[in-house]
């Protein structure tokens, strides 16, 4: 019996073969579907295959999907001490959140995307320029971390 393309995608993610992943994705494999309870990105992250993680993310794999035991690809990379795969996931997640935050604050593609509303919502300082003596002045201050 021939394996389904999603099963092949998971098998390929386990070994981290980026070239084969691209072939399967081009053949119509869905990077968001799981075959055995975990999407392919979790298999790639668990094995520490940072390039495979990146390939799957770029193909539309959900960076924030959860396994039946409520673990994410990030969790699998951390549990197995795979820093490079973890870094790929974190950078992608931060970029996704920044885009979503910008869109939520009305910066949706009119050429005037302002991060001010997003930064206020995230409780980050807003740069207000320099005062007459050349000192930085923030529009909103944040409390130091304790």
Describe the structure.
By secondary structure, the protein is mostly helical. The protein has a domain at 5-98: Ankyrin repeat-containing domain (Serine Threonine Protein Phosphatase 5, Tetratricopeptide repeat, Alpha Horseshoe), CATH 1.25.40. The chain is 49% helix and 7% strand. It has helices spanning 5-15, 18-26, 40-46, 50-58, 73-79, 83-104, 116-121; strands at residues 126-130, 136-140. A two-stranded antiparallel ribbon has the order 1-2. Strand 1 (126-130) and strand 2 form a beta hairpin. 27% of the residues are buried. Mean pLDDT is 78; it is low at 110-130 and 136-146. One of its GO terms (molecular function) is S-adenosylmethionine-dependent methyltransferase activity. Keywords: ANK repeat. Pfam families: Ank_2 (PF12796). One of its GO terms (cellular component) is cytoplasm. InterPro entries: Ankyrin_rpt, Ankyrin_rpt-contain_sf, RMT2/GAMT_Mtase.
Order of helices and strands: HHHHHHHEE
Question: Can you summarize the main beta sheet?
Answer: 2 strands, antiparallel
Query: Which structural class matches the secondary elements?
Result: mainly alpha
Strands ordered across the widest β-sheet: 1-2
Distance between the termini: 59 Å
Keywords: ANK repeat
GO molecular function: S-adenosylmethionine-dependent methyltransferase activity
Pfam families: Ank_2
GO cellular component, one term: nucleus
